[in-house]
Amino acid sequence: MNFSIRLTVNGVRHDVELDDPRVTLLDLLRERLDLTGTKKGCDRGQCGACTVLVDGRRVNSCLALAVSHDGADVVTIEGVSRGDQLHPVQAAFIAHDGFQCGFCTPGQIMSAIGLIQEAQTGDDPERIREAMSGNLCRCGAYAGITEAVLEARQSLASSNQRRSA
Ligand code: FES
Ligand code: FES
Q: How many structural domains comprise the chain?
């Protein structure tokens, strides 16, 4: 039996036929849509390398069944920059050395973008660390990651203020 689903990924609509209801959103993104920026670390919800935004919320795509997300709006790391202009979170990760090998970085960045949109942490580094705790980094770049999230949060807040002034 085949399942038809429609997803919007990074603003582009995709009609996808699945021949297995167990296909995860992660495998669909990587293997069907060639969006390999989203990484498969553990494939069991423990590392956060596969984090994407689904309808604006952070999701471990290795735990998400694609068939359950018919009609969803998905954003992956490939969809956050505007042409050559990096997303403020991407720029802050570079500025603060928020990575070493880079394997966890797409998931960290998507999680940070979701966290900033959730607006729950304020400028408290401890709360940011806690809110990012589902994203593991084998290289231990946590100090830079926290600084990057803090800076990006502040720069996005000031550009929102300028826009609404
Ligand atoms: Fe999904 Fe590790 S690959 S949480
Ligand atoms: Fe290497 Fe995080 S930068 S795992």
A: 2
